[in-house]
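Sync notes, pocket subgroup
Present: LS, DG
LS reminded everyone that the earlier model was apo-only. Rerun requested with S-adenosylmethionine included. Inputs:
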Amino acid sequence: MNSIQENIFYEADKEYNPDHVATPRFVVEDIYDLIDIKSFKMIWFPFNNYDSHFKLKADELNLKYKATHIFDDCGNDFFQTLPPKGCDLLISNPPFSQQNEIIKRTFELIDRGLIKSFCLLLPLSTLETPTRAEMYEKYIDKISIIIFKKRIKFLGKKTSFNKGCCWICYNIPKLTRQLYWI
Ligand SMILES: C[S@@+](CC[C@H](N)C(=O)[O-])C[C@H]1O[C@@H](n2cnc3c(N)ncnc32)[C@H](O)[C@@H]1O
């Protein structure tokens, strides 16, 4: 498939895929400030195509990063793609319906030394269930959770879709507390 076809698929996917939930600019700017994004040397955005604010803001700040997405030119599936060399931060808003597998894979990347730290934007319900609790408990020493006081209105979604969300952050030097509200 060429890149024009990939883009057509991506634009169509954005219309009907409930997992395509585009992050507003303010969410990106806030987390970049909170974690001091400029202190990271090589960042990976694994669920981000050309129109993502994570990527657009990174361009403005001249950050060194790699953005990949299942509908990019290489069909970069998160579960098959390795982080860029020297990756010290993975940050993204992942598809919520696959969150358990994504959290598991992300901790595997930590264990293998392929990333040093991560921030995942997830629904508040990520804090529920024995499966997720056990994964988080295992890594609790370096976890910080940033909870949004207000539900997020995602781009292109109606207000009825607004979601209570949090950032699950792992091994971020700037975050000295385990719990924050923003
Ligand atoms: C929650 S959306 C986030 C979109 C964008 N990154 C943003 O924050 O504005 C998650 C995106 O990941 C894509 N995606 C789903 N499964 C994927 C996978 N296995 N590997 C990479 N991307 C995937 C979806 O098509 C969707 O566009």
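DG: Residues 13, 17, 19-23, 46-48, 52, 54, 69-70, 77-79, 92-95 surround S-adenosylmethionine (CB under 6 Å).
LS: The radius of gyration is 16 Å.
Action: DG to write up.
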